[in-house]
Amino acid sequence: MTNQRIFYVLMLLISLVAVGQMAQTIYVPSITTMSRDLMVREGALQRLMAAYLLCYGVSQLIYGPLSDRIGRRPVILCGMGIFCVGALMALLSYSLSLIILAGAIQGTGTGVGGVMARTLPRDICDGRELRRANGLLNMGILVSPLLAPVIGGILSDWLGWRACFAFLLLLSSTVSLLVWFYLPETRPVRPANSSGSFGFCRLLGDKMFNHFLLILVGGLAGIVAFEASSGVLLKSMGISSREVSLLFILPLPGTFLGAWYVGRSARPFNGLMWRAVLSCLTAGVLMWLPAWFGVMTLWTLLLPAGLFFFGAGMLFPLATTGAMEPYTYLAGTAGALVGGIQNIGSGIVAGFSSLLPQNGQFSLGMVTFAMGMLILLCWLPLSISQSMQRQGPELI
Asked: Over the stretch 55-89, which tens digit does the pLDDT of each residue have?
């Protein structure tokens, strides 16, 4: 596939993933209005996001293996069709239970985007091209979480909260049409004499795959832990809600910068991974160390967070490439495990973090440092293994 065709496929894939990411947060600015119209307390609407995320994670474990069997295009179109049904149901909902069901249906549909974000690049690229493709894809994916609340706030102010779901319905329908007309089938044809030993068990029995998977869990969990704790910590410093919302997004460009650096750099995979790992570990130390002396300021929170986000931004394309590279004919199943377990694992860490005291940055620093150590301990054996094989061609 030519570089131009690869670029077009990646742009379609970014649009596909953006649907799911915008669905997760576009309605957040209008929660107060939604709760009043549906006659429920604002906290009850957290169930909408919970239902969405649960179905989003679980559905990936279905879409991945299915796409390995019947192809990428039919699975994507099926998932987007399910999402359109959920968006229409949310648009017409007049009760909490119905809109929660709609959120679950939307999450079930957009799970296909989470899988294909890891599967399609493996279908059309390999080696350093795969690393660059994953870097470009991660940069594009990071834009929609920043835009979604802004778009949702404007639509809610002008047309009411239902306009958010009308926008999602229009967006998903447009993306579905683009996929129908312009996305080629990318699933590689499996050789007739290839082994039939395909599935989750084979992947989970591969130590290299598991190590890269845990690295991805550690990177995402560190980001989620900061997002879950930073609002409480910043508010405890006497910062207003408006200022908190602005400070909350300050570290996010670090993730974008990390993905950009990976996509542009010609350095070997091993060297880039060490930079990413050490960035996350150093950020953990810098986040935790001030807490031992009872110090918490904007700088001790945001600077280590920015460094961790930068390291994670490098890790996401690198470790995804490392996990997916060996599995040409099992890319869908591998993508499902990478996406599903990464989200589930980071959710467990975030849940644990929420149970810890939030009266200083000690708990956040401890979790960030622990994730940095997890990333280091998982990368060390992989690095040693790759160093021993340097006499052969670099596979990644």
From this structure: 888 888 889 888 888 889 999 999 999 999 999 99
Both tokens of 215, joined, read: 């690295």
Rounded to whole angstroms, the Cα distance separating 352 from 347 reads: 9
- Please state, in angstroms and as integers, the Cα–Cα distance from residue 112 to each residue in 120, 129, 141, 306, 320, following that order: 11, 23, 15, 30, 17
* DSSP track, 163-176: HHHHHHHHHHHHHH
> Among positive and negative, which fits the CA dihedral 11, 16, 17, 19?
positive
pLDDT at 366 over 50: yes
Q: Classify residue 189 by its DSSP letter.
A: P
Instruction: List, as one string, the DSSP characters of 219-277.
Output: HHHHHHHHHHHHHHHHHHTT--HHHHHHHHTTTHHHHHHHHHHHHH--S-HHHHHHHHH
* Structure tokens belonging to residue 101: 């069901």
Reading the block at residue 146, the tokens are 């920043």
Which residues, at least 6 apart from 239, have a Cβ–Cβ distance to it below 8 Å?
A: 247
Cα distance between residue 286 and residue 222, in whole Å? 13
Q: Which two tokens stand for residue 373?
A: 């150590």
pTM comes to: 0.77
- Do 378 and 252 touch, CB atoms closer than 8 A? no
Tell me the HSE value of 350 on the side-chain side, using a 13 A CA sphere. 19
Distance CA 263, CA 131 (A): 7
- Per-residue pLDDT tens over the stretch 227-269: 767 767 877 788 765 576 567 678 888 888 898 888 787 788 8
Decide: 107 and 340 in contact? Cβ < 8 Å: no
Backbone CA torsion sign across 293, 297, 299, 303 = positive
Centre a 10 Å sphere on the Cβ of residue 196 and count the other Cβ atoms it contains. 6
Cβ(188)–Cβ(328) under 8 Å?
A: yes
